[in-house]
Amino acid sequence: MTIPILRAAIFLFWSARLMAAAPELGFRNSSGQTQLVWPGTQLGFRVEASVGGLKSPVWQPIQEAASRIDGEYRLTVPRDSGMAFYRLAQVTEIGGDTPGDFADSNGDGIDGDFSRAVFLAPPPFGNDRNSGTMQFPVATLEHAVELAETVPLKHDVYIAQGEYGLRAPLRLPPHVSLFGQFDGTTNWGIAARNVTTISGPATTLILGEYPGEVLLGLPVRLVGLTVIAADATEPGGSSKAVVIKGLKYSVSLERCQIYAGKGAAPGGSSYGL
Ligand SMILES: [Ca+2]
User: Fold this and answer.
1) Which of 85, 83, 109, 124 is nearest to 1 (CA)?
2) 235 preceded by a cis bond (ω within 30 of 0)
3) For residue 137, is the peptide bond before it cis, meaning its omega torsion is within 30 degrees of 0?
4) Separation of 116 CA from ligand 1 center, angstroms?
5) Whole-model pTM?
6) Separation of 93 CA from ligand 1 center, angstroms?
7) Most exposed: 112, 213, 214, 271, by fewest CB within 10 Å?
8) What are the structural domains, with CATH classification, of the chain?
9) What separation in Å is there between the alpha carbon of 268 and the centre of ligand 1?
10) Checking DSSP bridges between strand 59-61 and strand 45-50, what pairing results, if any?
């Protein structure tokens, strides 16, 4: 039982020397299983296992996502009678995992692609002085959308459960998608039971007719959100939760609940979408 572990240790040392950029992969025994560990600050790596030994290695990613606990990534692997070889490999696919399907298909540790997203969570975890990463999310939807519009390759906002209040209607840029239902921990797990609410004035979200819009050909998705518009206050005004107007790109709303407030007399109406 100890021999496979020893072999793995030797290879990991050799591997770390050849690939200086990769963090060192450590291991420990945990309740009769083997736990692979690496620093929690090293985002974007996944564990691969070789099924062909070391003479003719065939590296395949391990499908299970690592958990980030106490400042380190941990991944428990089965201990059987055969030898096992593991390495850390950098995840290079940009856009390789579409969020919202509750699966981590590119092995970077979250449902989605952390390299493409701005992260948003309620305070105190979220803070608009942060840079919007998994460990340092921002706190307001307005600022998250601003970052997603301006930071290269970051077109998505991943939003933790909680309520985000808008003081004014928010017009979404033409290539920014919003994904709710994350859990708001540093692991950024996702579950259908998590409720992410965007509440705003009588008009809350607006899509289309963005000033100076540049179309990148990216579909826009709103996933796992509850949008609540306030009652209209101006006489005759309507309450509109999501307004879509003059759209030149595709938008999809998935698993969203949209609630308009009451229209104001005389003749104001209530429009969810
Ligand atoms: Ca992923």
Assistant:
1) 83
2) no
3) no
4) 10
5) 0.70
6) 10
7) 214
8) 2-90 (no CATH), 114-271 (2.160.20)
9) 44
10) antiparallel
Instruction: Report CA(100)–ligand 1 centroid distance (Å).
Output: 10
What is the CA(212)–ligand 1 centre distance, in A?
32
CA of 260 to the centre of ligand 1 (A): 34
- Largest interatomic CA distance in the chain: 81
Burial 36-72 (b: 16+ CB within 10 A, else e): bbbebebbebbbbbbeeeeeeeeeeeeeebbebeeeb
Please list, in sequence order, all residues whose beta carbon lies within 8 angstroms of the beta carbon of residue 19, skipping any fewer than 6 positions away.
none
Whether the predicted pLDDT of 112 surpasses 60: yes
